[in-house]
Write a structure and sequence with these properties.
Elements lengths: L2 H10 L2 E5 L20 E3 L3 E3 L2 E8 L9 E2 H7 L2 E5 L3 E3 L7 E2 L8 E6 L5 E3 L4 E4 L4 E3 L3 E3 L6 E7 L12 E2 L1 H4 L24 H10 L2 H20 L4 H9 L3 H6 L1 H24 L5 E8 L2 E8 L2 H20 L10 H9 L5 E7 L3 E8 L2 E8 L7 E8 L1
Parallel strand pairs: 5-10
Antiparallel strand pairs: 1-18, 2-4, 3-4, 4-16, 6-9, 7-8, 9-14, 10-13, 11-12, 11-15, 12-14, 16-17, 17-21, 18-19, 19-20, 20-21
Length: 389
């Protein structure tokens, strides 16, 4: 069967339903009623400047060792992401043939050649092709998959010229102190995809609007340019001004230095805390910027949290860099209340039977997203993200 036919057939099994009230949840994503104990406990915060991170521990965790991350897939070469139309044919066990064809801004094609299911998180950047893209929603791709349509948003509006046949981690295309299209000299194992900051992630996940994603990318680029211009040489700010790529901006040496100032103390403190809290099942964080809760990321296990933590904390720090006003501090009780509230006005469910279910909840002042694995011996929420409107 041809790949396009396979893709069309697969899309038939993806079902979307909208409900007026909450309906189906995985084991984690449950609204907490009065007097009911939450499945999660928020601990005392770690603060640095305008960024506050509240560690979260769970009453239960799950085995997630079978899941492959996008970074792991890129490093091993078992995951291929390419422009739509580039996959000419795929016979399992043989070489994948690529051809240049009809690329689309909001659509890529992914093949998982691994024997493990692939976990994709909304907000991860894949660099290359005709434009850098950000993954638009969480999903699971089955092992040894046929070509899968991937919903994406462009985070590089100024380019529509192929820089590579396929996509990879941003570091594989944009190295330290390198410009667009210059390969990184970093060891392959060190290459990691970028995670966009929460404000950009929200436009992709929540608004699902390309124009708003572009507008937010431009806004953050301009803010970062102003911030860098305060202390760095003029050439650095000029380099930020001259690119339209979110990834290139974040790989700018002076931007990385500013992100490190905010991220490193929190990353190291929480990394140490994760190890101490392994028995207590540390699984995520609630994030506040400038005295306001903006986001939470919760995983099914400490193992998954540890894999994603380095790039997540840098995404939070990127959000905080341009917000240095000292505001009232968010309390642990407020973070706990934010995490517990999951009652919504509307719920949207997208499901690929036997693979995953993604649940989106629209509530008063928030949106929440839960990715539930439906693979054999699972049935739990692999990742739950929540954003404040």
């Amino acid at each position: 069967m041809r790949p396009k036919a396979l893709i069309a057939l697969a899309s038939i099994f993806v079902m979307t339903a909208v409900f007026a009230t909450t309906a189906v949840f995985g084991p984690h994503l449950q609204p907490v009623q009065a007097g009911q104990e939450s499945a999660y406990t928020v601990l005392e915060p770690i603060r640095n400047g305008s960024l506050t991170v509240f560690p979260v521990v769970a009453s239960k965790s799950y085995s997630t060792s079978e899941f492959l991350t996008l970074d792991e897939g890129f490093r091993s070469g078992e995951v291929i992401v390419t422009e739509n139309g580039n996959v000419h044919g795929l016979v399992r066990g043989r070489r994948t043939h690529l051809q240049q064809d009809s690329a689309e801004v909001n659509r890529l094609v992914l093949i998982n050649n691994s024997k493990r299911p692939l976990l994709l998180l909304a907000g991860e950047i894949v660099a290359g092709g005709k434009q850098d893209r950000v993954i638009g929603k969480d999903r699971i791709v089955p092992p040894e998959s046929d070509p899968v349509d991937l919903d994406v948003f462009c985070v590089e509006p100024g380019r529509w010229v192929a820089s590579s046949a396929s996509f990879g981690a941003s570091g594989a295309t944009y190295g330290s102190k390198a410009g667009a299209g210059v390969a990184s000299s970093a060891p392959k194992a060190a290459v990691q995809t970028l995670m966009v900051q929460p404000s950009v992630r929200a436009k992709a996940m929540g608004d699902k609007n390309q124009g708003q994603v572009w507008a937010e990318v431009q806004k953050q680029q301009q803010s970062m340019e102003v911030e860098v211009a305060r202390a760095a040489p003029p050439a650095s700010a000029a380099a930020i001004h001259s690119t339209s790529s979110y990834a290139v901006v974040m790989e700018n040496e002076d931007v990385k230095e500013k992100v490190d100032e905010v991220a490193k103390p929190i990353e190291q403190n929480y990394q140490s805390l994760i190890k101490q809290l392994r028995d207590r099942k540390a699984v995520g964080v609630v994030v506040a910027v400038d005295g306001r809760i903006v986001w939470s990321d919760i995983f099914a296990s400490t193992e998954l949290l540890e894999k994603y933590w380095p790039k997540l904390v840098r995404s939070y720090a990127s959000e905080a860099i341009v917000n240095r006003v000292k505001a009232a501090e968010v309390t642990s009780a407020q973070a706990q209340a934010f995490l517990a509230e999951m009652e919504g006005r509307k719920q949207t469910i997208e499901s690929e039977p036997g693979i995953f279910r993604q649940t989106e909840i629209d509530g008063d002042g928030f949106k929440a997203f839960a990715l539930t694995s439906l693979l054999p011996k699972t049935g739990f929420d692999v990742h739950v993200a929540k954003m404040a409107d």
